[in-house]
Amino acid sequence: MRKGDLKLIQEHNRSMVLNKIRTEGPISRIELAKSNQISPSTVASAVQELIKEGYVSEIGTGISSGGRKPVLLKFNPNNQYLFAVAMTNSLIILAQMNLEASVLRKSTHQISGLQGEELVQLLLELMDTFFGGSEDLHRCIGISVTVPGVVNNEQGIVYYNTKLRMSNVPLKQILEDRYGLKIWLENDMNAVVLAERRFGKFPYSNLIYISIGDGLGSGILINDRIMRGVHGGAGEFGHTSVNRSGIRCECGNVGCLDSYISWIAVYSRILTAITTGRPTRIGEVIGGDYGKIIPSVYLEALRQGDRLAQDINEEVAEHLGAGIVNLINMFNPGALILGGEMAIGNTELLSKVQVYIEKHAMSIVKDELVFGQSSLGENDKLMGAAAVLLQDVLGFSITD
């Protein structure tokens, strides 16, 4: 057997042992050997390594079935930690998290219109300040960063983001040179779909996540692998064209879906309606301060039966439904999830899209489809960043 093959087998066995301890612990070495169908010596070697690295600890003895009582092992999610950095088109969110993707502390900052090099500089300043609050950096297993747009995760380059004006930014190398820690870089939607699979209520190996917020994007899992494309550009759902004579998009195309249903598009519709005198509850709430037009105000107006909000929601549902049907017919997922500011809490949007799917998708691909709302809560993007790192370091796995 070649040395490289042996190393792969050892890493696979280590991953199996750690996952079993994480999901079924406290558990003994002999139970690990039986359940994973590997030798006791292999288990002993993997456990010794995991204890040395701090991922696992012994916590006492179990019940004996004859002979010496077995020593029990448990996963240590708080012995080490990671840093997660989630960028959106409007925010930078930083967090220190444990090895079960729970937030220990976090900080949120507005991007305030910065783009390109100025945005990267802001990111570095915020990371310097946040990491400076940690006195035990030796316990940090790495930094995971997620960014919207076209991202090459292997080379660690942000190839393209139209809204943030990021082009060919070697972000991974910049951060590794600055902090001396291992860096993971991933597209934000790829990360969140992985988190829904690993930590959420949608443990499907064929899974699509769509986020509607200050941009429109998707993450796609096919046979438990993220669909990336050649340059990391797969899943740019917002830049699928729905109107060839429509609005010019920042990407250079016309009629992109993002231009019709993202929060920026909805905000523009609301602002036009208010300034042209259309009656709406939103106008009453903001009192002339257009800066107060935010997604929560729109969603509250929708809940109160505001006619403008309902009309906009109807349009969003039609465009979104058409795009989703295309994805369903193309990829035949086990589940499709909606997330983002425009979808969370918007039960009317979900029901309208559900009706559209039932009416227009092919029967063979829609009949057993699970359709629902994101289950990760307000820390979804941070959990996405954590999932990327933990998937690689700990080899987390789930079986359907």
Describe this structure in words.
- The chain starts with a helix and ends in a 7-residue tail after the last helix.
- Strand 8 and strand 9 (157-161) form a beta hairpin.
- It has a 5-stranded mixed sheet, sandwiched between helices.
- The protein has 14 helices and 16 strands.
- Helices cover 42% and strands 21% of the residues.
- It has helices spanning 3-24, 29-36, 40-53, 116-131, 171-179, 188-198, 258-261, 263-275, 281-286, 295-303, 307-331, 347-360, 363-366, 380-393, and strands at 27-28, 56-61, 71-75, 81-87, 91-97, 103-110, 140-147, 150-152, 157-161, 166-169, 183-187, 207-212, 216-222, 225-226, 335-339, 370-373.
- By secondary structure, the protein is of the alpha/beta class.
- It is globular, with a radius of gyration of 24 Å.
- Helix 2 (29-36) packs across helix 3 (40-53) and helix 10 (295-303) packs across helix 11 (307-331).
- The mean pLDDT is 90.
Give a quick set of tags describing it.
five-stranded mixed sheet, 400 residues, alpha/beta, globular
Compute the number of helices: 14
Overall, the morphology is: globular
Q: Class by helix and strand content?
A: alpha/beta
Residues in helices, as a percent range? 40-55%
Largest sheet data:
5 strands, mixed
Order of strands, widest sheet? 6-5-4-7-11
Radius of gyration: 24 Å
Q: How many strands appear in the DSSP assignment?
A: 16
Topology:
Elements: H1 3-24, E1 27-28, H2 29-36, H3 40-53, E2 56-61, E3 71-75, E4 81-87, E5 91-97, E6 103-110, H4 116-131, E7 140-147, E8 150-152, E9 157-161, E10 166-169, H5 171-179, E11 183-187, H6 188-198, E12 207-212, E13 216-222, E14 225-226, H7 258-261, H8 263-275, H9 281-286, H10 295-303, H11 307-331, E15 335-339, H12 347-360, H13 363-366, E16 370-373, H14 380-393
Parallel strand pairs: 4-7, 7-11, 12-15, 15-16
Antiparallel strand pairs: 1-3, 2-3, 4-5, 5-6, 8-9, 9-10, 12-13, 13-14
